[in-house]
């Protein structure tokens, strides 16, 4: 299977190249030349597979065995999920009539991003090890992962990459502006290859610095920067798996064979939802996918209007910028992965019987036009035919903060009670709206993207006066004492690229020494 950029060009990359490169040089995202179909007998064959076996079956459709052998792939997958606390990895929990939650947060950092980042870390390590066979010293290929975080991504990336040979990871966070638990999760990881940088500034400052480093050709070439955000294809691919595992789980329990499943996905950068769409395209039976946003509702507005527009024009001038909500991991202005879906919409709305290759080129041109106008005018308007295609496959809506808080409360007082984190609650709130219009044979599965303890303020605020004993009912054992553990973090006193660059280069010198000693002793991470 080869990969190409949504914005065109002749590049045809292997899976390895697509994963190591992250973002295409022309600004596009990598997608597979074709979406593979499921094997004829998939439903019978896979019905009793474990999560790890399912992952192997699905990933094999996208990765040639001459890139990663079947056996090696299974080892990488097994290793990626051995640190999950639940035997099913991503269990499904019934919480109401025709309503389930798919809990994606049983990994090391209690957030759904672990599902993909544990695998990504192992893939990076696998590729580097292979490139470095017989190489010593300066000749070894290294990867320097640099990312900015306002919380969730940083800790999941750190746990995915800690202690990996020939990889250093630098995570920038705005000093004092991430939640105490999330800050502790990141900075209490003291493996020598993990570097937390606390920048005096905002999240946007951090992100700007990271962008500047990636754009710095010399710095990038010297240190081979790697991307861990959800533009990385491996993250999307890893996330398709739980749609299948949830499908089999719920199907086993459904009374009637004609029952259908609707997944509802709390969305920010659209990575998680896009993975569901790929699963659908491969052939997993499901009803329209449900997209749930908070007040940062560019996606909900797209399905309403066909305009993909940064700022909500209807709320008047000066309303621009990201809104701070109770579900901060979904506070975005644009959804980076939406570009991938837009490419497919452009492709599938093309008329005529040209070759697939010609259509691909045309779709890239159309897509590039849309992305250029987002960049220049802050918006792109798609033709009616494209919007109709999008509406056939998705429904979308938003939930305000007050509705989110009410929803947390209403599921806490339901029977059986369920404590949802604010992101999951956005999904639950919107699912309730969709349910009013759904056919009676539809059962909903809401993706639960974080453990409620990660967003303690929103949860305790929503449940104030309800007699919640947070430490007893919500806080996991692992979080207790986390705040007191030793930390490793480097402060940067101003949001300046040069300062961060200096910190990174200094640290890399030291990492190289440590890693060479490690490579020499033959001790590698498990
Ligand atoms: C990242 C994240 C999301 C949004 O996922 P996308 O793939 O960006 O749409 C939702 N909830 C939580 C808790 C997250 O960390």
Brief summary of the model shown:
It is an enzyme of class 4 (lyase). The chain has helices spanning 15-21, 42-46, 51-62, 70-81, 113-131, 152-161, 180-187, 203-215, 217-223, 233-253, 271-282, 298-305, 338-348, 356-377, 384-393, 401-412, 422-435, 456-462, 470-473, 497-521, and strands spanning 3-5, 30-32, 92-96, 99-103, 143-148, 167-174, 194-199, 225-226, 260-266, 289-293, 307-309, 379-381, 394-398, 442-448, 490-492.
Could you say which small molecules are bound to this protein?
pyridoxal-5'-phosphate
Give the fraction of residues assigned to helices: 40-55%
Give the CATH class of one domain: Alpha Beta
The total count of strands amounts to 15
Query: How many helices?
Result: 20
**Strand coverage percent:** 5-15%
Main beta-sheet strand count, sense and barrel state = 6 strands, mixed
Explain what you see.
- This protein is α/β, with parallel strands linked by helices and 526 residues long.
- The chain has a domain of 224 residues: Rossmann fold.
- The chain contains 20 helices and 15 strands.
- A six-stranded mixed β-sheet has the order 3-4-14-9-10-13, sandwiched between helices. The protein has a five-stranded parallel β-sheet with strand order 8-5-6-7-15, with helices on both faces. A two-stranded antiparallel ribbon has the order 1-2.
- Helix 3 crosses helix 10, helix 4 packs across helix 5 and helix 5 runs parallel beside helix 6.
- The model has no long low-confidence stretch (mean pLDDT 93).
- The chain binds pyridoxal-5'-phosphate.
- Pyridoxal-5'-phosphate binds next to helix 11.
């Amino acid at each position: 299977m080869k990969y190409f950029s949504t914005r065109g060009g002749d590049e045809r990359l292997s899976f390895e190249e697509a994963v190591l490169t992250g973002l295409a040089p022309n600004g596009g995202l990598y997608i597979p030349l074709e979406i593979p179909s499921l094997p004829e007998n998939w439903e019978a064959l896979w019905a009793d597979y474990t999560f790890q076996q399912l992952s192997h079956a699905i990933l094999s459709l996208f990765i040639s065995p001459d890139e990663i052998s079947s056996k090696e792939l299974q080892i990488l997958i097994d290793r990626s999920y051995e640190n999950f606390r639940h035997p099913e990895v991503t269990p499904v929990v019934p919480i109401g009539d025709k309503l389930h939650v798919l809990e994606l947060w049983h990994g090391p950092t209690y957030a759904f991003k672990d599902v993909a980042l544990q695998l990504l870390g192992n893939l990076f390590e696998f590729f580097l090890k292979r490139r470095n066979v017989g190489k010593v010293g300066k000749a070894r290929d290294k990867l320097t992962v640099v990312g900015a975080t306002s919380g969730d991504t940083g800790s999941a990336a750190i746990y995915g990459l800690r202690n990996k040979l020939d990889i250093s990871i630098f995570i920038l966070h705005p000093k004092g502006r991430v939640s105490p638990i999330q800050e502790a999760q990141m900075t209490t990881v003291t493996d020598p290859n993990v570097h937390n940088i606390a920048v005096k500034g905002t999240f946007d400052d951090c992100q700007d610095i990271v962008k500047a480093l990636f754009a710095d050709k010399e710095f990038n070439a010297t240190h081979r920067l790697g991307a861990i955000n959800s533009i990385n294809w491996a993250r999307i691919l890893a996330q398709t798996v739980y749609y299948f595992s949830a499908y089999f789980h719920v199907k086993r329990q459904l009374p009637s064979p004609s029952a259908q499943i609707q997944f509802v996905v709390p969305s920010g950068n659209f990575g998680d939802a896009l993975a569901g769409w790929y699963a659908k395209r491969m052939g997993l039976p499901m009803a329209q996918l449900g997209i749930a946003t908070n007040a940062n509702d560019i996606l909900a507005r797209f399905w309403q209007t066909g305009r993909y527009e940064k700022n909500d024009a209807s709320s008047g001038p000066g309303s621009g910028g990201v809104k701070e909500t109770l579900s901060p991991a979904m506070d975005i202005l644009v959804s980076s992965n939406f570009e991938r879906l837009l490419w497919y919409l452009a492709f599938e709305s093309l008329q005529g019987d040209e070759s697939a290759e010609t259509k691909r080129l045309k779709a890239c041109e159309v897509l590039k036009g849309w992305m250029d106008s987002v960049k220049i005018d802050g918006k792109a308007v798609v033709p009616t035919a494209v919007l109709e295609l999008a509406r056939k496959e998705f429904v979308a809506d938003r939930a305000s903060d007050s509705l989110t808080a009410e929803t947390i409360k209403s599921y806490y007082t339901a029977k059986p009670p369920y404590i949802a984190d604010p992101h999951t609650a956005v999904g639950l709130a919107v699912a309730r709206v969709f349910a009013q219009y759904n056919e009676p044979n539809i059962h909903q599965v809401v993706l639960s993207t974080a453990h409620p303890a990660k967003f303690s303020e929103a949860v305790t605020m929503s449940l104030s006066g309800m007699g919640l004993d947070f430490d007893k009912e919500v806080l996991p054992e692992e979080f207790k004492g986390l705040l007191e553990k030793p930390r490793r973090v480097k402060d940067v006193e101003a949001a300046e690229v040069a300062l961060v660059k200096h910190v990174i280069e200094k640290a890399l010198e030291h990492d190289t020494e440590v890693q060479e000693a490690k490579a020499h002793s033959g001790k590698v991470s498990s």
